[in-house]
């Protein structure tokens, strides 16, 4: 099989890239390791920056998002028994919107299928050959080895994917910090009360409560790095959430059946080597943020906007100057965003060996964000997200 752009991975980065290239008349094949069912049901991020919403609208995949997305007027921070609300509307009405990543992925998959464009599930890429000239993707599908010849390959295959391994000296260009805890992410059929929604610093560890729809809550608990999710019953989970988020504030958490559970290790990671020959990385394939800033999906969308422009110039005008600038431009947004997500992680979690002194310092940062005008602006601008650099 042959195509112009081989896209590895049907996450938000790969699927959106396919959609943007389609709008520019460029053919692409998306190759995805997992099954269609698995990809559509995978619960992950869900807080969208304005730039992400605008991009999905521009490429005609925001019909359901405009109907079901929940805009945020403010963000609530809890600590030491107090709750504080930070207004979240930025210049020009910029705001954050809650809409599940699984829904974005479903919208993009259904659109691609309706347009009759190639999207191959259950197809694991094993290697990419000839990266510097005319790349060939090798993948397994239905137990058979297959090849896809391309003019260009976009590695959108996430942190554990295969593409980054084809970047020469990737390790020498990579930077990583692994935090000494994980997040236990839960999806529950329970209405999110406005009184318990927010980010909570608790001496028992962080807890987060957010909404994914009128009757669906997304909740997180800080847990040890090697946490076994089978070790807690659903009642114990709700009890722990209540202890951190509700009881000391005199509130009650709405409970309901827990329909999805996952544990994710918190890490900040950036591979600055994002282009080699005719291969480029985008999204989690070249950076991972701790979910504390809700930025991973938004960064992936920003990368894809920049990368798609570079691919269009390369394939339609034989101009590789944008591709050469893609990493530097993307990193102008990636580094500060990863820094912000790590700062949120530093401030809201209890670290092993943490002293009362350390906790007081965390409170000082929270005081600054909640009570100081400059602090509020810093918090708001970082949560709303940075503008995308332009070529
Ligand atoms: C477990 C988990 C939970 C998360 N939870 C949150 C959260 O709660 N809040 C938040 O803000 N962010 C969260 N994130 C981060 C956010 O979801 C990611 O930043 C976002 O998914 C990045 O999109 P992507 O398309 O770059 O990568 P991904 O969504 O990871 O997509 C990569 C795709 O490539 C496929 N793939 C991998 N290897 C191969 C291969 N060899 N061949 C073919 N296909 C391959 C994968 O199956 C996957 O479908 C979470 C991430 C993870 C991993």
TrEMBL record:
SUPFAM superfamilies: FAD-linked reductases, C-terminal domain, FAD/NAD(P)-binding domain. One of its GO terms (molecular function) is FAD binding. This is 4-hydroxybenzoate 3-monooxygenase. It comes from Pararhodobacter aggregans. Keywords: FAD, Flavoprotein, Monooxygenase, Oxidoreductase. It comes from the Bacteria. It is an enzyme of class 1 (oxidoreductase). Its EC number is 1.14.13.2. Residues 2-340 form the FAD-binding domain.
